[in-house]
Amino acid sequence: MGHISHVNELKSWLDSLWAPWRVEYFERADHSAEFLRQAAEAANDREHLVICRRKSAFLIMNRYPYSAGHLMVVPYRAVSRLEELTDSEKVELLDLACYAQRLLEKVVKAQGFNIGWNFGVAGGAGVIDHLHLHVVPRWSGDHNFMTVLGGARIIPEGLLPLYEKLQEAVQKDAARVQNPGWNQVSSMAHDQKSDSR
For the chain, which residues make up each domain, given as ranges? Predict the structure, then answer.
């Protein structure tokens, strides 16, 4: 390759990836390691990307996702080991993980999942003193040439637009719970459609 004298000559050999949503990551002023505790105590769920809350745990988006829709299930109490959780916290964490799967199947059409815990620095934990369960959606073929050859992951959607979609689905689920008759009729209609396929 010879000397490049003009910026337009770059176009012949340099490809650009247009990712304007990345601004969401670096514009954020607060990069505190206490982000899970802050989210647990926050009143503004959108600001902290909290998807939903239960009695002893909540569901939050990962700001630095492995894939679009990477969620974390987090107890309100900051504990670092599973044995420190109460029985009710354990049940609620798994229940929220199940809910996260259903939500991601609906919203991002997830075809599979990686679900797991990271404990301690050696185990890959980014936050050591506040355990959390990762729910990472996967799709057939999501390890393409960019990941394998380029050493880069492509996250196809910004955090806030995806947050809004997840919130919309959560609100619809909440409406169904509040009106169980509608939910039952809707479920029966969905089952009939599925049976006819």
Answer: 31-190
Q: Map tokens 């169904």 to a residue.
A: 176
For the domain made up of 31-190, the CATH class stated in words is alpha beta
Rounded CA-CA distance 142/66 in Å is: 11
pTM of the model: 0.72
Name the band, by pLDDT with cuts 50, 70 and 90, for residue 55. Answer: very high
CB burial readout 48-81, b (16+ within 10 A) else e: bbbbbebebbbbbbbeebebbbbbbbbbbeeeee
**Nearest-5° angle of CA 50, CA 52, CA 58?**
75
Q: Which of 132, 134, 143, 190 is catalytic?
A: 132
117-135: average pLDDT: 90
- Known catalytic residue at 132: yes
More confidently predicted of 193 and 160: 160
